[in-house]
# Entry
Amino acid sequence: MAADQQFANLKELTDRIGMVYGTEDWCMFMYSLVKMQTPLNVLELGTGLGATALWVAQAMKEVGAGKIFTIDNGQDWSEIVAKSPELFTPLQRTLDFRAYMADLVAQFSLQSHLEHLQVTMPPYPEFEPGLDMLFSDFRHGPNDILAILGHFLPRMNESSSIFIDSASTSFPSYALLELLVAQLNAGKLPGMLLKATPAAMHESLWRQVRGSRYTLMHMVERKARLQNSTAWLKIEPVDLRPYPQAPFH
Ligand SMILES: C[S@@+](CC[C@H](N)C(=O)[O-])C[C@H]1O[C@@H](n2cnc3c(N)ncnc32)[C@H](O)[C@@H]1O
# Structure
């Protein structure tokens, strides 16, 4: 498929299916960010119908590097197909979730850049090497955020980003993140986060906190629907320059 046709087909697909989880614009934001920052290792928790994973993989394909692993147990799939069959082709309606994802990946020739893992979380995967981006899009309560950050924060690369869907428009989650980031930037590790972090990762987490600065950005969409936000936690080494590194001019 020609590159411009692939782009148009992907846009048509995610404008249609992206509405189910409200990621039809978010996925384009992630496409742009991946093209600009060229992360090599990206992990998504909650594939949904694939909108974000497909655009991240498409950006990686255009850049020529990078891979997104996306985890989803497919628990919503049969209900979505039953409720909104018009979103899918006759073939897709006959597939299980694993085959639906494999079909999309093949259709857009994204096999080198996208891998779907059909497992239930938690437990969260051990991820080696470190992550450049994490997009968590399946749970956003305060305890879930602590569990996710406890597991993944020490596994993030020194210049990296964590995105937590819906957290900025849920007050308890918003407040937790604000408190947490203020303490991290003061060089402190709150007990509740430490408790959610495996003991074997405590030293890595302390090292990260000592050597990092954290920026929290609440990305809220002005749209008439719920869960209209993503919290963006950017991690950078303590330095006198922004990351990812680019020459000063
Ligand atoms: C909001 S959707 C993800 C949307 C997607 N990130 C996008 O870009 O459109 C959440 C997904 O998480 C999955 N999910 C929910 N709980 C899960 C669990 N405990 N383990 C694995 N997947 C889960 C659901 O099947 C659903 O597809």
